[in-house]
Specification:
heterodimer; A: alpha+beta; PmbA/TldD fold; six-stranded mixed β-sheet; 21 strands; 21% helix; 40% strand; globular; B: alpha+beta; 10 helices
Chain lengths: 426, 476
């Protein structure tokens, strides 16, 4: 189909274009308790074509754009009709002109993941064995498990010469853990593995079961007030996405972010840990075919890179770095055990923890937290936290212990002072 | 006017029928769902404009569900044609045989009976006033651009104004031994967002519109320009709220989020099957104020969650979930109903042919009451008017509430003071909140501009809403 598309683009004399193809296979299993309720396989091919029409508006060079999906199995005539119609629709929505990424040509880069050595069914089974293998407690158990073993091949081509393709193997899913007494409660967890790191997955499931038991005995919310809040795991990454997204060329070009390289974006006179972040990727290219190499995003609180794709880089006159989602962060200065010795609220489970990249506010409802009131430590549930990175960022303290997920490799925990908590008996 | 059939579904129907016939030679039961979606999305802001026919629902493909007499298997694909039939059949056969490869020790595969179906042939299309394909792209983008310029000219403190509109035509074909169903649904949605900055903070206000129909929606955004701009500028003076429990009035949009997130997910009966929903124990018991009646229906409301049949071939129904504060029933997909011994309610929905079906909401709302908004505001000594829901998360097992709203307007001695607070997190225990509802306004408004996920995935189009309600809510 790609060859047919390229021939048709040439025949229609379309000068600027980009094509993305994704071919995906998956094996999927849906367990309820210890029963395989449904099994699935998928096999799909998706192609999207973006067309660009160089034009002039008010004496300035612009590109008209239109994006269209190309269905598998179109006949030659149908394909020509689809692309010709799409081309005719490129005159309406236009933006300042830019150059598509002049990327490399290369053959398919096969996945080097350990998952590539096995079939999708075998990868799924190994994940299922690991997850159910951790389900050994008497007072908590797996309620539901969904596992997706995927193989994806992506190809990106454009009229500036880019033609790259790469294979991704992963296993992802979700599981719900339940505890029946003293209260009937559950906690919800997701995972995504790019390598068969079964020890980590098993440990996470075991921790999830422990947290669910603790939630069952967490009867009340914390009292309303201001706390030294400790966040851990995925919530640490979520806090740091403020820096990731504020440093994107998209945000900077549109003036939603005023940041520039060299800015002390964590503020002056940092009293906690200065934030350093390296952008990295498990994929060799981004969706525009831009090679993804490790880059410093921040060093000791100072912005080093405005990152993003070809379009906004061109507008800003900077190098296109590609689009990243993985952050690597050095370990912090304090052990988690020492953090927890101080009076604090260590929230280990939220219903949905969110960082608002535009305002810097973060918050969420507490599903399980450990409250150290200076004398005892007890589990609490309910209430919410509502903080601002702008208020907190000079005093962030990261843990020495580390946490690794598909999109993060960094400190396991962060301590944030003075966070407002809505709770009981205010 | 009625939405037209999908030519692709019509042309390929003989192939789908042949595939089903071949499957029924190998399996005691098989069904097939094919979909063909078409979309166009238009957007402009201060610096950028965009037009795209690509999107989540601009998707075409097929999912087959088979039973070997006891166990279910699905296969999703989007490459079709007579020449591919043998390989598709082989793939389905292989998928049905993979249970032993996937199952760890001590796990089993439950046995489901062969479904008993009634003979049903159906074809239906929704109505529209303005055919999206009859309106030029330049007309649509021209209107959006004019509205953007109008807002940007209002105040120099406005950082940006983003305006968007999109339409989706989604056609589906469901075939099984006794069913031959076709539907064509068209909906449109749009939004207006105004942004203003306060130092590093970028505050935004938004309003959305949606309809079951076409680009007759195009003119509805303009009426919101003044109020959205005013709210965005008000937010520049927003303060942090003092956490506490307050008398609150929720706008219909915030009511809708409470309906959907706080209670709706909890009555999805696939959660009953998994013993993940507290609601199962409360059927027939009071869960809300006697002022509250709640419904979910893909057929009884005309909004973005509407359809004629669900993705398992069950015709859409009108389900009264709460009647006068008493929980009546949940909503259900077909497979869950089979386990529970109940009637499916036509709520088995897939994100697309690529995903499995779960119990999902459609159009979900609280019925209107008898109070007037001005009386509701006047009844509050100290509290807030909550506006602009932004997100929410379900907790069906424990009925915890997490809903985020962008605007809380202070009410003192029965009057809005002009003071504004942001951002706001609503928390609490669902029945406590619903039982505290003491006033309900006279008109229900449904909004369908958002998407609904299950956990963190499985996005489907829904609408939700209700009247203004007065309740006691914990804010933080």
């Amino acid at each position: 189909m790609i060859t047919k598309i390229l021939h048709t683009l040439e025949a229609l004399q379309i000068p600027v274009w980009a094509v993305e193809e994704t071919v995906k296979e998956s094996a999927e299993a849906f367990f309820i308790r210890k029963r395989l309720d449904l099994k699935r396989k998928t096999n799909t091919q998706d192609i999207t074509v973006r067309l660009f029409r160089p034009m002039e508006k008010d004496g300035k060079a612009v590109l008209g754009t239109f994006t269209v999906p190309i269905r598998p199995g179109l006949t030659d005539a149908e394909l020509e009709h689809t692309l010709a119609e799409a081309w005719s629709r490129t005159t309406v929505a236009w933006n300042p002109a830019y150059e598509l990424y002049h990327g490399p040509k290369g053959s398919l880069q096969h996945s080097t993941s350990g998952f590539a050595n096995a079939s999708l069914e075998e990868n799924l089974r190994a994940a299922a064995d690991t997850i159910f293998g951790a389900d050994t407690r008497e007072n908590a158990f797996l309620n539901t498990v969904e596992i997706f073993a995927n193989r994806t091949v992506q190809r990106v081509l454009n009229s500036s010469g880019t033609d790259v393709s790469w294979e991704t193997m992963d296993v992802q899913g979700e599981y719900v853990t339940q505890c029946l007494a003293p209260a009937d409660v559950e906690t919800y967890h997701t995972f995504r593995l790019r390598e068969p790191d079964w020890d980590t997955l098993r440990r996470e499931v075991e921790e999830a079961l422990t947290q669910t038991v603790d939630r069952a005995s967490a009867a009340v919310p914390p009292k309303a007030g201001t706390y030294n809040v400790i966040l851990s795991g995925d919530e640490v990454r979520e806090v740091l996405t403020y820096y990731l997204y504020r440093a994107s060329s998209n945000m900077v070009y549109q003036k939603y972010s005023r940041w520039s390289v060299g800015d002390k974006v964590q503020g002056e006179d940092i009293e906690g840990d200065a934030v350093s972040i390296t952008l990295t990727s498990a994929d060799p290219y981004d969706g525009e075919g831009i090679p993804l190499q490790d880059r410093p995003l921040m060093e000791s609180g100072v912005l080093r890179t405005i990152h993003g794709g070809a379009r906004f880089a061109y507008y800003l006159g900077i190098e296109p770095t590609g689009s990243y989602s993985v952050m690597q962060v050095p370990s912090g200065s304090v052990s988690l055990a020492d953090m927890k010795k101080q009076p604090s609220l260590h929230v280990v489970s939220f219903s949905d923890f969110q960082m608002d990249d535009f305002t810097g506010h973060f918050g969420g409802e507490i599903r399980l937290a450990y409250l150290n009131d200076g004398e005892t430590v007890r589990p609490v549930t309910g209430g919410s936290i509502n903080g601002s990175i702008l208020d907190a960022q000079k005093h962030l303290v990261f843990s020495q212990e580390r946490y690794r997920a598909a999109n993060y490799d960094g400190p396991l925990a962060v301590s944030i002072q003075g966070v407002a908590v809505a709770g009981a008996a205010e | 006017m009625k939405v037209q059939d999908s030519p692709w579904l019509q042309e390929n129907k003989p192939f789908f029928q042949k595939l089903l016939a071949e499957l029924l030679k190998q399996f005691p039961y098989a069904s097939l769902l094919a979909q063909d979606g078409q979309q166009a999305a238009y957007s402009v802001n201060r610096r950028l404009s965009n037009l795209s026919a690509s999107g989540l629902f601009a998707d075409r493909g097929c999912v087959v569900k088979v039973s070997d007499g006891a166990h279910w298997t699905e296969y999703s694909f989007n490459r079709t044609g007579e020449d591919l039939l043998p390989s598709i059949l082989e793939e389905i056969k292989a998928a049905a045989a993979m249970s032993s490869q996937l199952m760890p020790e001590h796990t089993t595969e439950p046995e489901y009976p062969i479904p008993q179906e009634e003979e049903t042939v159906f074809s239906g299309s929704t109505d529209y006033e303005v055919d999206p394909l009859s309106v030029g792209d330049d007309v649509v983008l021209g209107k959006l651009t004019a509205l953007r310029d109008q807002v940007l000219a209002k105040d120099e403190r406005i950082l940006d104004c983003s305006v968007r509109i999109s339409w989706t035509r989604l056609s589906k074909l469901f075939l099984s031994p006794k069913k031959d169903l076709t539907q064509n649904v068209l909906w449109a949605e749009g939004g207006l967002t105004v942004m203003a900055s306060r130092g590093e903070e970028v505050k935004s206000a938004h309003e959305s519109v949606s309809c079951l129909g076409g680009l007759e929606l195009l003119d509805q955004l303009e009426g919101h320009a003044d109020s959205v701009t005013r709210t965005a500028l008000d937010l520049l003076q927003a303060e942090a709220i003092t956490p506490g429990t307050y008398d609150c009035i929720c706008t219909p949009a915030v009511t809708g989020m409470i309906v959907h997130e706080a209670f709706g997910h909890g009555v999805e009966m696939d959660m009953f099957v998994k013993k993940r929903a507290l609601a199962e124990q409360y059927v027939g018991k009071p869960v809300a104020s006697p002022l509250i009646t709640m419904r979910d229906s893909a057929s009884a409301a005309a909004q973005t969650g509407s359809y004629f049949f669900d993705d398992e071939g069950t015709m859409a129904k009108d389900t009264v979930i709460i009647k006068d504060g008493i929980l009546q029933t949940g909503i259900s997909d077909w497979q869950s109903a089979m386990v529970l011994g109940t009637e499916p309610t036509g709520n088995g929905r897939r994100q697309s042919f690529r995903r499995k079906a779960y119990t999902r909401m459609t159009n979900t709302w609280f019925e209107p009451g008898k109070d007037k908004l001005e009386d509701m505001i006047a009844s509050i000594e100290h509290g807030y008017l909550l506006e602009q829901p932004s997100s929410g998360m379900e907790d069906p097992k424990n009925w915890g509430i997490q809903c985020m709203v962008d605007v809380a307007r202070e009410i003192e001695n029965g009057k809005l003071t002009g003071r504004i607070y942001n951002p706001i997190v609503l928390t609490g225990y669902v029945p406590d909140l619903l039982k505290s509802i003491s006033m309900v306004s006279e008109e229900t408004v449904l909004s369908g501009s958002g998407m609904c996920g299950k956990g963190w995935k499985e996005w489907v189009k829904v609408s939700d809403g209700g009247p203004y309600i007065k309740a006691k809510i914990r804010l933080g």
